[in-house]
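Predict the structure of DUF433 domain-containing protein.
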Amino acid sequence: MVMQKQVVKHPYITTKAEISKGSPIIAGTRVRVLDIIIEYEYLGYSPDEIISAHPHLILPQIHDALSFYYEHREELDQEIRSRKETIAKLRKKFTS
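Done. Here is the predicted structure for DUF433 domain-containing protein.
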């Protein structure tokens, strides 16, 4: 039996070229999935703590962002690495 990858729909996630250069966002907001992931994975915030930091969001949106991330982890991790490299270059260029 061959296992097929299940495609999950993400009702709270969208992309718009004019918002965050097309990075996935929570629909109806400008909050990037990356912002949620950084808070969850790198800062260790719980979903409830993320809601406290973004009171205009609801818990299902946070969980959908996390689910979207785990489904697209490789490409989003690459975007995080790329942004870190850009920040490092800018810091090096503009430090006195």
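Residues 13-87 form a domain with the Arc Repressor Mutant, subunit A fold (CATH 1.10.10.10).
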